[in-house]
Amino acid sequence: MRGLDGYGNMALHRGDNSVVQWLHVSKYPPGLSYVTLELGICFLCLAVLFALSERFPPRRNHLFLVLGQTPMFFYQLHFPLLVRGTQLLGVEGKLGLGATFLAAACVVLVLYPACRVYRGYKATHKQGFAQYI
To answer: Where are the alpha helices (DSSP H) in the chain?
Structure first.
C-alpha cells in the first residue's frame, strides 16, 4: 500500500524513498498503511519474544509471567493505587515524566506479591468469577 503511495494513507505522499518517508503514515484517521505498519511491528516483536521464551524459559514466579497471568487484576488495582498515591503525597499533576516512571515501577513492585497470591487463588478456584479477572 505504501509503495503505491495512494489509497490508505490520508494524502501523506512520500517525498522520496527514504525510510522516514516510508514510515510516515496517517494515524488519525487510521489508514490502511498505519494499521498494517503497526500490526507488522507488533508481530515482529511477538516473534522475537516467543523465540526468546523458547531459548530462555521463564521461571515460575518471573515478573512478566505473573503479571501476564493476572492482567485484569493488576489493571483494576494499579490505577486507583496511582491516583490515591499522588493525592496522598500532594503531587498530583506537579511532577514530570521521570517521577511517573518511578511511580509506575513502585506500583508494579507493590502489586507483584498481590498478583502472585491472586494467581494461586485462580489456580485453585477455576470455576466462578476468578477465571474472568
So the answer is: 19-23, 32-55, 63-69, 71-89, 97-124
Cβ-based neighbours of 9, under 8 Å, separated by 6 or more: 1, 2, 25, 26, 31, 32, 33, 34
Q: What are phi and psi of 48, to 5 degrees?
A: -65, -45
Q: How buried is 108 (Cβ within 10 angstroms: 0-12 exposed, 13-18 middle, 19+ buried)?
A: middle
Walk along the chain (133 residues) and give the pLDDT tens digit of each residue. Answer: 666 766 666 666 667 777 777 777 777 777 777 888 889 999 999 999 899 989 988 888 988 899 989 999 999 999 999 889 888 888 877 888 888 899 899 999 999 999 999 999 988 888 878 777 7
Q: What is the DSSP letter of 127?
A: S
Q: Which three cell numbers stand for residue 122?
A: 485462580
Contact between residue 79 and residue 104 where contact means Cβ atoms under 8 Å apart? no
In whole angstroms, what is the distance from residue 38 CA to residue 88 CA? 38
**What global pTM score does this model have?**
0.65
